[in-house]
């Protein structure tokens, strides 16, 4: 999805329980590395995949992170996946999703590397600005009574949003086959 709301939903899940700026920077950096690698490799390397399937995986990443925030893996399976690795891997899918969208445009080869790197820097700056606002809002909310009481419901809504994204993309895949 070109609008980026799917990336922001995932990253809201990622930073939801991160209280220190150092941790937020670490996790967002892992996502950014993954996102940048596959965005650049997809566009510059001409690696192609079905955009609906990739975007469905991106929707699933939102579901995954919300489920993780709800301690679903520990409760149901007795294990806790490596969160940093998951953020990096899903960052790879998120970047590839944007690459599949950009591949639908006819991009001039002259200056493509400079343009795509500049585009990626702009995407990352926009992401940082949006997450700064989210982090400030979450930090304020955490100082109020009821944060933990509403955290499960909030992550349930986040999960529902992810399921809607998955359904939307799988429907697009089925209709456009």
| Overall outline | globular
The residue-averaged pLDDT reads: 92
Q: Assembly type of the shown chains?
A: single chain
Number of H- or I-type helical stretches: 7
Query: Beta-strand level of the residues, as a percent range?
Result: under 5%
Please give a handful of descriptors for the protein shown.
0% strand, 177 residues, mainly alpha
Protein architecture, described:
- The chain is an all-alpha fold.
- The protein has one domain (5-175).
- It is built from 7 helices and no strands.
- It has helices at 5-15, 21-45, 51-69, 72-77, 83-102, 112-142, 147-175.
- The radius of gyration is 17 Å and the shape is globular.
- The relative contact order is 0.21.
TL;DR of this structure?
The chain has 177 residues and is mostly helical.
List the helices and strands and how they pair.
Blueprint: H1 5-15, H2 21-45, H3 51-69, H4 72-77, H5 83-102, H6 112-142, H7 147-175
